[in-house]
Amino acid sequence: MSSLPLIADVAEGGLVPPAIDPDSRWWWEALEAGELLLPRCDNCAKAFFPPTPRCPECGSPGWRPEPAGGDGELYSWVVTHHPFDPAFASDVPYTVVVVTLAEGPRLAGRLLGEDPGELVAGTAMQAVTYRVAGQALLGFVSAGGEQGTRGRGST
Amino acid sequence: MSPPGRPAFCGTTAIVGVGYSDISRESGRSVLSLAAEAGAAAIADSGLGAADVDGVLSFSLGGDSVPGQAVATTLALPQLSYAADLSLGGQAPCLLVAQAAMAVASGMAKVVLVFRALNGRSGQRVGRHRTEGPATQYRYPAGLSAWPQYQALWARRYLLEVGGGPEALGAVAVAQRRYAEANERAVVRRPLTMDAYLAAPYVAEPFRVPDCTTEVDGACAVVVTSLERARDLPHPPVVVAGAAYAAGHRSGLDIGDVLAWPDYSRNFTHLLADDLWRSAGLGPADMSLAQIYDCFTSTVLMGLEGLGLAERGQAGPFVASGETGRAGRLPTNTNGGLLCEGYLHGMNTLAEAAIQVRGEAGERQVARHESCVVTSGALVDGSALVLSAAP
Q1: How crowded is the C-beta side of B68, counted as CA atoms within 13 Å?
Q2: In Å, how far is B291's CA from the nearest CA of chain A?
Q3: Residues of B taking part in catalysis
Q4: How far is B36 from chain A (nearest CA, A)?
Q5: Which phi and psi angles does A37 have, rounded to 5°?
Q6: pLDDT (tens digit, 9 = 90+) per residue, B233-289?
Protein backbone atom coordinates (compact mmCIF):
# COMPACT_ATOMS: atom_id res chain seq x y z
CA MET A 1 0.00 0.00 0.00
CA SER A 2 1.30 3.45 -0.84
CA SER A 3 1.79 6.06 1.81
CA LEU A 4 0.87 9.70 1.61
CA PRO A 5 3.80 12.08 1.60
CA LEU A 6 4.58 13.08 5.17
CA ILE A 7 5.34 16.73 5.64
CA ALA A 8 7.73 16.52 8.53
CA ASP A 9 8.79 20.10 8.82
CA VAL A 10 5.47 21.90 9.18
CA ALA A 11 5.56 24.91 11.47
CA GLU A 12 4.38 24.29 14.97
CA GLY A 13 0.67 24.98 14.99
CA GLY A 14 -2.37 24.80 17.19
CA LEU A 15 -3.99 21.47 17.89
CA VAL A 16 -7.64 20.67 18.20
CA PRO A 17 -7.56 16.88 18.51
CA PRO A 18 -10.09 15.04 16.35
CA ALA A 19 -13.13 13.67 18.24
CA ILE A 20 -12.53 10.10 17.06
CA ASP A 21 -15.49 7.72 17.45
CA PRO A 22 -16.23 4.04 16.70
CA ASP A 23 -17.21 4.91 13.10
CA SER A 24 -13.98 6.76 12.39
CA ARG A 25 -11.28 4.99 14.41
CA TRP A 26 -10.17 2.84 11.44
CA TRP A 27 -9.74 5.95 9.28
CA TRP A 28 -7.59 7.76 11.83
CA GLU A 29 -5.50 4.62 12.53
CA ALA A 30 -4.76 4.41 8.82
CA LEU A 31 -3.79 8.07 8.72
CA GLU A 32 -1.51 7.49 11.71
CA ALA A 33 0.24 4.87 9.54
CA GLY A 34 0.45 7.34 6.67
CA GLU A 35 -2.40 5.87 4.61
CA LEU A 36 -5.46 7.57 3.20
CA LEU A 37 -8.35 5.12 3.04
CA LEU A 38 -11.82 5.84 1.71
CA PRO A 39 -14.90 3.72 2.34
CA ARG A 40 -16.40 2.27 -0.85
CA CYS A 41 -19.92 0.84 -0.96
CA ASP A 42 -20.29 -2.84 -1.81
CA ASN A 43 -23.68 -2.17 -3.36
CA CYS A 44 -23.45 0.99 -5.46
CA ALA A 45 -19.63 1.04 -5.72
CA LYS A 46 -19.40 4.74 -4.81
CA ALA A 47 -16.62 5.95 -2.56
CA PHE A 48 -17.90 8.23 0.19
CA PHE A 49 -16.67 10.53 2.95
CA PRO A 50 -17.02 11.07 5.87
CA PRO A 51 -17.15 7.43 7.00
CA THR A 52 -20.65 6.47 8.09
CA PRO A 53 -22.17 3.16 9.21
CA ARG A 54 -24.06 2.94 5.90
CA CYS A 55 -23.52 4.23 2.39
CA PRO A 56 -24.97 7.76 2.19
CA GLU A 57 -25.79 7.29 -1.49
CA CYS A 58 -27.77 4.05 -1.38
CA GLY A 59 -28.10 3.26 2.34
CA SER A 60 -26.44 -0.14 2.05
CA PRO A 61 -24.66 -1.35 5.22
CA GLY A 62 -21.85 -3.06 3.29
CA TRP A 63 -18.70 -1.11 2.49
CA ARG A 64 -14.95 -1.64 2.60
CA PRO A 65 -11.95 0.64 3.06
CA GLU A 66 -9.86 1.24 -0.03
CA PRO A 67 -6.52 3.00 -0.36
CA ALA A 68 -6.69 6.36 -2.09
CA GLY A 69 -3.85 8.15 -3.81
CA GLY A 70 -4.64 11.52 -2.24
CA ASP A 71 -4.65 13.31 -5.57
CA GLY A 72 -7.49 15.65 -6.38
CA GLU A 73 -8.51 19.06 -7.54
CA LEU A 74 -9.17 22.19 -5.58
CA TYR A 75 -12.88 22.90 -5.14
CA SER A 76 -12.78 25.86 -2.80
CA TRP A 77 -10.66 27.44 -0.10
CA VAL A 78 -10.83 30.00 2.69
CA VAL A 79 -8.00 32.18 3.94
CA THR A 80 -8.59 32.72 7.63
CA HIS A 81 -7.45 36.10 8.89
CA HIS A 82 -9.29 36.13 12.18
CA PRO A 83 -8.65 33.76 15.09
CA PHE A 84 -12.16 32.32 15.39
CA ASP A 85 -10.74 29.41 17.36
CA PRO A 86 -8.19 30.52 19.99
CA ALA A 87 -6.31 27.25 19.45
CA PHE A 88 -5.21 28.55 16.04
CA ALA A 89 -4.54 32.15 16.97
CA SER A 90 -0.83 31.85 16.22
CA ASP A 91 -1.48 30.11 12.88
CA VAL A 92 -3.44 33.07 11.48
CA PRO A 93 -3.40 33.77 8.58
CA TYR A 94 -3.88 30.23 7.36
CA THR A 95 -5.73 28.55 4.52
CA VAL A 96 -8.09 25.59 4.57
CA VAL A 97 -8.77 23.90 1.24
CA VAL A 98 -11.62 21.65 0.15
CA VAL A 99 -10.36 19.16 -2.42
CA THR A 100 -12.35 16.82 -4.64
CA LEU A 101 -10.33 13.62 -4.67
CA ALA A 102 -9.93 11.60 -7.85
CA GLU A 103 -12.12 8.90 -6.25
CA GLY A 104 -14.99 11.41 -5.90
CA PRO A 105 -15.35 12.45 -2.24
CA ARG A 106 -14.25 15.84 -0.95
CA LEU A 107 -11.99 16.36 2.03
CA ALA A 108 -10.94 19.47 3.90
CA GLY A 109 -7.44 20.11 5.16
CA ARG A 110 -4.86 22.78 5.94
CA LEU A 111 -2.86 24.09 3.00
CA LEU A 112 0.73 23.48 4.03
CA GLY A 113 3.78 25.56 3.31
CA GLU A 114 2.35 27.54 0.41
CA ASP A 115 0.95 30.95 -0.31
CA PRO A 116 -2.74 30.70 -1.24
CA GLY A 117 -2.33 33.50 -3.76
CA GLU A 118 -1.45 31.04 -6.52
CA LEU A 119 -4.52 28.87 -6.02
CA VAL A 120 -7.28 28.71 -8.59
CA ALA A 121 -10.25 26.39 -8.69
CA GLY A 122 -9.20 23.12 -10.28
CA THR A 123 -5.56 23.35 -9.14
CA ALA A 124 -4.16 19.83 -8.83
CA MET A 125 -3.71 19.04 -5.14
CA GLN A 126 -2.06 16.24 -3.21
CA ALA A 127 -3.09 15.03 0.23
CA VAL A 128 -0.27 14.75 2.73
CA THR A 129 0.05 13.86 6.38
CA TYR A 130 1.58 16.08 9.01
CA ARG A 131 1.75 16.04 12.78
CA VAL A 132 0.88 18.59 15.39
CA ALA A 133 1.84 17.69 18.94
CA GLY A 134 2.15 14.09 17.78
CA GLN A 135 -1.33 13.88 16.24
CA ALA A 136 -1.35 12.78 12.60
CA LEU A 137 -3.54 15.04 10.46
CA LEU A 138 -4.46 15.31 6.80
CA GLY A 139 -3.29 18.37 4.89
CA PHE A 140 -2.80 19.38 1.28
CA VAL A 141 -0.16 20.80 -0.99
CA SER A 142 -0.49 21.76 -4.61
CA ALA A 143 0.66 18.82 -6.69
CA GLY A 144 3.10 20.76 -8.79
CA GLY A 145 4.53 22.77 -5.92
CA GLU A 146 7.93 22.55 -4.23
CA GLN A 147 6.30 21.14 -1.16
CA GLY A 148 5.40 18.06 -3.13
CA THR A 149 9.02 16.99 -2.94
CA ARG A 150 10.17 18.55 0.32
CA GLY A 151 9.97 16.95 3.68
CA ARG A 152 9.15 13.42 2.64
CA GLY A 153 9.70 11.10 5.51
CA SER A 154 8.98 7.53 6.29
CA THR A 155 6.10 6.77 8.57
CA MET B 1 -60.91 22.26 1.11
CA SER B 2 -57.53 23.47 -0.09
CA PRO B 3 -56.71 23.12 -3.77
CA PRO B 4 -54.31 20.25 -4.52
CA GLY B 5 -50.76 21.19 -3.65
CA ARG B 6 -51.77 23.84 -1.11
CA PRO B 7 -51.28 22.75 2.52
CA ALA B 8 -54.30 23.24 4.78
CA PHE B 9 -52.52 25.76 6.98
CA CYS B 10 -51.62 28.08 4.08
CA GLY B 11 -54.07 30.93 3.65
CA THR B 12 -55.98 30.03 6.82
CA THR B 13 -53.54 31.19 9.50
CA ALA B 14 -51.85 34.48 10.29
CA ILE B 15 -49.19 36.23 12.33
CA VAL B 16 -51.00 38.61 14.68
CA GLY B 17 -48.31 39.77 17.10
CA VAL B 18 -44.66 40.81 16.81
CA GLY B 19 -42.35 41.67 19.71
CA TYR B 20 -38.70 42.40 20.37
CA SER B 21 -36.57 42.84 23.42
CA ASP B 22 -33.86 45.47 23.46
CA ILE B 23 -31.07 44.47 21.07
CA SER B 24 -27.53 45.27 22.21
CA ARG B 25 -23.99 43.97 22.45
CA GLU B 26 -24.31 43.55 26.22
CA SER B 27 -27.75 43.08 27.65
CA GLY B 28 -26.65 42.67 31.26
CA ARG B 29 -29.69 40.42 31.59
CA SER B 30 -30.56 36.75 31.51
CA VAL B 31 -31.69 35.12 28.29
CA LEU B 32 -34.96 34.31 30.07
CA SER B 33 -35.50 38.01 30.76
CA LEU B 34 -34.95 38.84 27.07
CA ALA B 35 -37.24 36.03 25.94
CA ALA B 36 -39.97 37.05 28.34
CA GLU B 37 -39.74 40.66 27.19
CA ALA B 38 -40.10 39.73 23.51
CA GLY B 39 -42.83 37.18 24.24
CA ALA B 40 -44.84 39.59 26.36
CA ALA B 41 -44.45 42.30 23.73
CA ALA B 42 -45.65 39.98 20.96
CA ILE B 43 -48.66 38.84 22.97
CA ALA B 44 -49.57 42.43 23.91
CA ASP B 45 -49.12 43.49 20.29
CA SER B 46 -51.55 40.79 19.17
CA GLY B 47 -54.36 42.19 21.30
CA LEU B 48 -54.69 38.80 22.98
CA GLY B 49 -53.76 37.95 26.54
CA ALA B 50 -51.38 35.43 28.07
CA ALA B 51 -54.42 33.34 28.93
CA ASP B 52 -55.13 32.89 25.22
CA VAL B 53 -51.74 31.39 24.35
CA ASP B 54 -51.70 27.59 24.32
CA GLY B 55 -48.59 26.81 22.30
CA VAL B 56 -44.90 27.75 22.51
CA LEU B 57 -42.21 26.99 19.94
CA SER B 58 -38.56 27.97 20.11
CA PHE B 59 -35.09 27.02 18.99
CA SER B 60 -31.53 27.24 20.23
CA LEU B 61 -28.06 26.34 19.05
CA GLY B 62 -25.58 24.63 21.30
CA GLY B 63 -27.82 25.28 24.29
CA ASP B 64 -27.58 29.07 24.06
CA SER B 65 -31.17 29.75 25.07
CA VAL B 66 -33.88 28.82 27.55
CA PRO B 67 -36.54 26.21 26.84
CA GLY B 68 -40.04 27.26 25.88
CA GLN B 69 -41.32 25.96 29.20
CA ALA B 70 -39.28 28.63 31.00
CA VAL B 71 -40.95 31.36 28.98
CA ALA B 72 -44.38 29.79 29.40
CA THR B 73 -43.83 29.65 33.16
CA THR B 74 -42.46 33.20 33.38
CA LEU B 75 -45.30 34.67 31.31
CA ALA B 76 -47.86 32.77 33.38
CA LEU B 77 -49.23 31.01 30.32
CA PRO B 78 -51.97 28.52 31.05
CA GLN B 79 -51.88 24.84 30.16
CA LEU B 80 -50.22 24.32 26.76
CA SER B 81 -51.47 21.92 24.12
CA TYR B 82 -48.51 22.30 21.77
CA ALA B 83 -44.81 22.91 22.42
CA ALA B 84 -41.42 22.11 20.99
CA ASP B 85 -37.83 23.34 21.28
CA LEU B 86 -35.61 22.69 18.29
CA SER B 87 -31.84 22.42 18.39
CA LEU B 88 -31.23 24.24 15.15
CA GLY B 89 -29.66 27.33 13.69
CA GLY B 90 -31.08 30.01 11.46
CA GLN B 91 -32.91 27.35 9.43
CA ALA B 92 -35.65 27.41 12.06
CA PRO B 93 -37.80 30.57 12.09
CA CYS B 94 -39.95 30.00 8.99
CA LEU B 95 -40.17 26.30 9.81
CA LEU B 96 -41.40 27.06 13.34
CA VAL B 97 -44.01 29.56 12.13
CA ALA B 98 -45.17 26.89 9.67
CA GLN B 99 -45.36 24.42 12.55
CA ALA B 100 -47.31 26.93 14.64
CA ALA B 101 -49.68 27.42 11.71
CA MET B 102 -50.05 23.66 11.30
CA ALA B 103 -50.87 23.29 14.99
CA VAL B 104 -53.55 25.97 14.67
CA ALA B 105 -54.99 24.65 11.41
CA SER B 106 -55.13 21.12 12.78
CA GLY B 107 -56.96 22.28 15.87
CA MET B 108 -54.20 21.16 18.20
CA ALA B 109 -53.59 24.71 19.41
CA LYS B 110 -55.34 28.04 19.11
CA VAL B 111 -52.61 30.62 19.65
CA VAL B 112 -48.90 29.83 19.36
CA LEU B 113 -45.95 31.94 20.49
CA VAL B 114 -42.71 31.47 18.51
CA PHE B 115 -39.52 33.03 19.88
CA ARG B 116 -35.72 33.15 19.72
CA ALA B 117 -33.66 34.61 22.55
CA LEU B 118 -29.96 34.65 23.29
CA ASN B 119 -27.06 36.60 24.71
CA GLY B 120 -25.30 36.05 21.42
CA ARG B 121 -22.62 38.67 21.97
CA SER B 122 -21.96 38.86 25.70
CA GLY B 123 -22.55 35.13 26.17
CA GLN B 124 -22.10 32.19 23.82
CA ARG B 125 -21.10 33.56 20.42
CA VAL B 126 -22.14 31.52 17.41
CA GLY B 127 -19.17 32.79 15.42
CA ARG B 128 -16.69 31.03 17.64
CA HIS B 129 -18.65 28.32 19.40
CA ARG B 130 -17.54 24.79 18.57
CA THR B 131 -20.55 22.50 18.23
CA GLU B 132 -20.55 18.72 18.69
CA GLY B 133 -21.25 16.22 15.96
CA PRO B 134 -19.93 13.17 14.10
CA ALA B 135 -18.12 15.11 11.39
CA THR B 136 -16.38 17.85 13.37
CA GLN B 137 -13.29 15.62 13.56
CA TYR B 138 -12.80 16.03 9.82
CA ARG B 139 -12.57 19.82 9.92
CA TYR B 140 -11.80 21.21 13.39
CA PRO B 141 -8.18 19.96 13.44
CA ALA B 142 -7.53 21.79 10.17
CA GLY B 143 -8.77 25.01 11.74
CA LEU B 144 -12.12 24.95 9.95
CA SER B 145 -14.71 25.46 12.68
CA ALA B 146 -16.44 28.82 12.32
CA TRP B 147 -19.50 29.89 10.35
CA PRO B 148 -17.69 32.65 8.47
CA GLN B 149 -15.23 30.04 7.21
CA TYR B 150 -17.82 27.50 6.03
CA GLN B 151 -19.78 30.20 4.28
CA ALA B 152 -16.68 31.77 2.78
CA LEU B 153 -16.01 28.42 1.06
CA TRP B 154 -19.46 28.65 -0.51
CA ALA B 155 -19.18 32.33 -1.35
CA ARG B 156 -15.91 31.77 -3.16
CA ARG B 157 -17.34 28.92 -5.19
CA TYR B 158 -20.49 30.91 -5.97
CA LEU B 159 -18.46 33.86 -7.25
CA LEU B 160 -16.26 31.53 -9.29
CA GLU B 161 -19.20 29.81 -10.92
CA VAL B 162 -21.13 32.95 -11.81
CA GLY B 163 -18.10 35.03 -12.69
CA GLY B 164 -18.71 37.55 -9.92
CA GLY B 165 -16.22 39.52 -7.90
CA PRO B 166 -16.12 41.11 -4.46
CA GLU B 167 -18.38 43.91 -5.68
CA ALA B 168 -21.26 41.43 -5.81
CA LEU B 169 -20.90 40.83 -2.07
CA GLY B 170 -20.19 44.50 -1.45
CA ALA B 171 -23.37 45.54 -3.23
CA VAL B 172 -25.42 43.61 -0.66
CA ALA B 173 -23.55 45.15 2.25
CA VAL B 174 -23.91 48.67 0.85
CA ALA B 175 -27.61 48.34 -0.06
CA GLN B 176 -28.56 47.00 3.33
CA ARG B 177 -26.57 49.60 5.24
CA ARG B 178 -28.73 52.20 3.55
CA TYR B 179 -31.85 50.62 5.06
CA ALA B 180 -30.20 50.43 8.46
CA GLU B 181 -29.83 54.20 8.48
CA ALA B 182 -33.62 54.35 8.99
CA ASN B 183 -33.76 51.55 11.57
CA GLU B 184 -33.30 52.64 15.17
CA ARG B 185 -33.10 49.04 16.29
CA ALA B 186 -30.07 48.32 14.09
CA VAL B 187 -26.74 48.00 15.90
CA VAL B 188 -24.76 48.76 12.73
CA ARG B 189 -25.93 52.00 11.12
CA ARG B 190 -22.89 53.89 9.90
CA PRO B 191 -23.18 54.53 6.13
CA LEU B 192 -21.06 52.26 3.95
CA THR B 193 -19.71 52.97 0.46
CA MET B 194 -18.32 50.42 -1.96
CA ASP B 195 -14.85 51.95 -1.52
CA ALA B 196 -15.08 51.54 2.24
CA TYR B 197 -16.32 47.98 1.77
CA LEU B 198 -13.39 47.05 -0.48
CA ALA B 199 -10.95 48.64 1.96
CA ALA B 200 -12.32 46.72 4.94
CA PRO B 201 -10.10 43.97 6.35
CA TYR B 202 -10.72 40.33 5.50
CA VAL B 203 -11.92 38.00 8.23
CA ALA B 204 -12.26 34.79 6.21
CA GLU B 205 -11.43 35.54 2.62
CA PRO B 206 -13.45 36.35 0.55
CA PHE B 207 -15.45 37.77 3.48
CA ARG B 208 -14.60 41.16 4.89
CA VAL B 209 -15.99 42.56 8.14
CA PRO B 210 -19.07 44.13 6.46
CA ASP B 211 -19.95 40.78 4.87
CA CYS B 212 -20.72 39.29 8.26
CA THR B 213 -23.69 39.60 10.56
CA THR B 214 -23.19 41.14 13.99
CA GLU B 215 -23.63 38.97 17.05
CA VAL B 216 -26.04 40.56 19.54
CA ASP B 217 -27.93 39.98 22.77
CA GLY B 218 -31.67 40.05 22.22
CA ALA B 219 -34.94 38.29 21.55
CA CYS B 220 -37.72 38.37 18.99
CA ALA B 221 -41.13 36.71 19.01
CA VAL B 222 -44.28 36.35 16.91
CA VAL B 223 -47.77 35.07 17.68
CA VAL B 224 -49.70 32.87 15.23
CA THR B 225 -53.40 32.10 15.19
CA SER B 226 -56.21 31.44 12.71
CA LEU B 227 -56.97 34.03 10.04
CA GLU B 228 -60.56 34.01 11.23
CA ARG B 229 -59.50 35.07 14.71
CA ALA B 230 -56.91 37.47 13.31
CA ARG B 231 -59.57 39.56 11.60
CA ASP B 232 -60.92 40.60 15.04
CA LEU B 233 -57.51 41.70 16.33
CA PRO B 234 -55.94 45.18 16.23
CA HIS B 235 -53.42 44.83 13.39
CA PRO B 236 -53.92 43.84 9.75
CA PRO B 237 -53.49 40.05 9.65
CA VAL B 238 -50.27 38.78 8.10
CA VAL B 239 -51.40 35.63 6.35
CA VAL B 240 -49.15 32.59 6.23
CA ALA B 241 -49.79 32.18 2.52
CA GLY B 242 -47.08 29.63 1.77
CA ALA B 243 -44.36 27.61 3.45
CA ALA B 244 -41.64 25.12 2.58
CA TYR B 245 -38.59 23.42 4.03
CA ALA B 246 -35.74 21.57 2.39
CA ALA B 247 -32.68 19.69 3.55
CA GLY B 248 -30.68 18.55 0.55
CA HIS B 249 -29.60 14.99 -0.10
CA ARG B 250 -26.18 14.59 1.61
CA SER B 251 -26.90 17.46 4.01
CA GLY B 252 -24.08 16.22 6.22
CA LEU B 253 -23.57 14.64 9.63
CA ASP B 254 -23.82 17.79 11.73
CA ILE B 255 -24.54 21.48 11.32
CA GLY B 256 -21.44 22.76 9.56
CA ASP B 257 -20.56 19.49 7.79
CA VAL B 258 -20.55 20.57 4.16
CA LEU B 259 -18.07 18.04 2.75
CA ALA B 260 -20.65 15.95 0.89
CA TRP B 261 -22.63 18.84 -0.58
CA PRO B 262 -22.33 18.74 -4.35
CA ASP B 263 -22.59 22.43 -5.28
CA TYR B 264 -21.46 25.25 -3.00
CA SER B 265 -22.92 27.82 -5.40
CA ARG B 266 -26.51 26.76 -4.79
CA ASN B 267 -28.07 26.55 -1.34
CA PHE B 268 -31.32 25.06 -0.01
CA THR B 269 -33.47 27.85 -1.49
CA HIS B 270 -32.93 26.27 -4.89
CA LEU B 271 -34.48 23.06 -3.51
CA LEU B 272 -37.58 24.42 -1.79
CA ALA B 273 -38.61 27.10 -4.30
CA ASP B 274 -41.11 24.99 -6.25
CA ASP B 275 -42.76 23.74 -3.06
CA LEU B 276 -42.90 27.28 -1.66
CA TRP B 277 -44.54 28.85 -4.70
CA ARG B 278 -46.96 25.96 -5.13
CA SER B 279 -47.99 26.15 -1.47
CA ALA B 280 -48.77 29.85 -1.86
CA GLY B 281 -50.33 29.69 -5.30
CA LEU B 282 -47.99 32.60 -6.14
CA GLY B 283 -44.70 33.08 -7.94
CA PRO B 284 -41.55 35.18 -7.60
CA ALA B 285 -43.05 37.95 -9.73
CA ASP B 286 -45.88 38.33 -7.20
CA MET B 287 -43.53 39.33 -4.39
CA SER B 288 -43.60 42.99 -3.37
CA LEU B 289 -40.56 42.63 -1.15
CA ALA B 290 -38.24 40.04 0.32
CA GLN B 291 -36.51 39.30 3.59
CA ILE B 292 -33.64 36.97 2.71
CA TYR B 293 -31.69 35.44 5.57
CA ASP B 294 -28.34 37.18 5.56
CA CYS B 295 -25.90 35.90 8.12
CA PHE B 296 -23.45 36.78 5.31
CA THR B 297 -23.83 38.81 2.14
CA SER B 298 -23.44 35.74 -0.07
CA THR B 299 -26.60 34.11 1.27
CA VAL B 300 -28.66 37.00 -0.08
CA LEU B 301 -27.26 36.44 -3.57
CA MET B 302 -27.85 32.69 -3.37
CA GLY B 303 -31.34 33.18 -1.90
CA LEU B 304 -32.45 35.62 -4.59
CA GLU B 305 -31.33 33.20 -7.28
CA GLY B 306 -32.51 30.03 -5.58
CA LEU B 307 -36.04 31.40 -5.23
CA GLY B 308 -36.14 32.64 -8.81
CA LEU B 309 -36.20 36.31 -7.80
CA ALA B 310 -33.06 36.84 -9.88
CA GLU B 311 -31.59 34.80 -12.71
CA ARG B 312 -28.62 32.54 -12.12
CA GLY B 313 -25.53 34.68 -11.69
CA GLN B 314 -27.53 37.90 -11.87
CA ALA B 315 -28.22 38.57 -8.21
CA GLY B 316 -25.08 40.70 -7.85
CA PRO B 317 -25.99 43.03 -10.74
CA PHE B 318 -29.62 43.02 -9.51
CA VAL B 319 -28.56 44.35 -6.12
CA ALA B 320 -25.90 46.69 -7.51
CA SER B 321 -28.40 48.32 -9.86
CA GLY B 322 -30.63 49.28 -6.92
CA GLU B 323 -33.44 46.81 -7.50
CA THR B 324 -33.37 45.66 -3.86
CA GLY B 325 -33.40 49.25 -2.61
CA ARG B 326 -36.35 51.33 -1.52
CA ALA B 327 -37.20 52.45 -5.01
CA GLY B 328 -36.35 49.16 -6.68
CA ARG B 329 -38.42 46.30 -7.99
CA LEU B 330 -37.88 44.14 -4.93
CA PRO B 331 -36.98 45.93 -1.69
CA THR B 332 -34.94 43.37 0.26
CA ASN B 333 -33.92 43.23 3.92
CA THR B 334 -35.65 46.47 4.68
CA ASN B 335 -34.39 46.63 8.28
CA GLY B 336 -30.79 46.35 7.09
CA GLY B 337 -30.97 42.60 7.58
CA LEU B 338 -29.12 40.48 10.06
CA LEU B 339 -26.02 42.26 8.78
CA CYS B 340 -27.15 45.49 10.44
CA GLU B 341 -29.98 44.76 12.88
CA GLY B 342 -28.03 41.96 14.50
CA TYR B 343 -28.04 38.19 14.52
CA LEU B 344 -31.18 36.86 16.14
CA HIS B 345 -30.81 33.75 13.97
CA GLY B 346 -33.31 35.04 11.42
CA MET B 347 -36.24 35.49 13.80
CA ASN B 348 -35.97 39.23 13.18
CA THR B 349 -35.84 38.61 9.42
CA LEU B 350 -39.30 37.08 9.74
CA ALA B 351 -40.57 39.74 12.15
CA GLU B 352 -39.57 42.54 9.74
CA ALA B 353 -41.54 40.81 6.99
CA ALA B 354 -44.66 40.79 9.16
CA ILE B 355 -44.32 44.46 10.10
CA GLN B 356 -43.83 45.47 6.46
CA VAL B 357 -46.80 43.43 5.21
CA ARG B 358 -48.94 45.13 7.87
CA GLY B 359 -47.81 48.51 6.55
CA GLU B 360 -46.53 49.48 9.99
CA ALA B 361 -42.80 49.90 9.41
CA GLY B 362 -42.87 53.68 9.77
CA GLU B 363 -39.79 55.27 8.28
CA ARG B 364 -38.73 51.88 6.91
CA GLN B 365 -42.07 51.16 5.24
CA VAL B 366 -41.94 50.28 1.56
CA ALA B 367 -44.74 51.39 -0.69
CA ARG B 368 -45.87 48.01 -2.03
CA HIS B 369 -46.25 45.36 0.65
CA GLU B 370 -48.94 42.89 -0.39
CA SER B 371 -46.66 39.81 -0.32
CA CYS B 372 -43.24 39.21 1.19
CA VAL B 373 -41.07 36.12 0.87
CA VAL B 374 -38.94 35.22 3.89
CA THR B 375 -36.12 32.70 4.18
CA SER B 376 -34.43 31.02 7.13
CA GLY B 377 -31.07 29.31 6.66
CA ALA B 378 -27.94 29.69 4.59
CA LEU B 379 -26.44 26.45 3.30
CA VAL B 380 -27.68 22.88 3.05
CA ASP B 381 -31.05 23.21 4.75
CA GLY B 382 -33.62 25.81 5.64
CA SER B 383 -37.17 27.05 5.38
CA ALA B 384 -39.19 29.81 3.78
CA LEU B 385 -42.56 31.51 4.00
CA VAL B 386 -44.73 33.69 1.85
CA LEU B 387 -46.50 36.25 4.06
CA SER B 388 -49.35 38.22 2.51
CA ALA B 389 -51.85 40.89 3.34
CA ALA B 390 -55.26 39.39 4.06
CA PRO B 391 -57.76 39.50 1.20
Answers
A1: 23
A2: 27
A3: 293, 343
A4: 31
A5: -110, 145
A6: 999 999 999 999 999 999 999 999 999 999 999 999 999 999 999 999 999 999 999
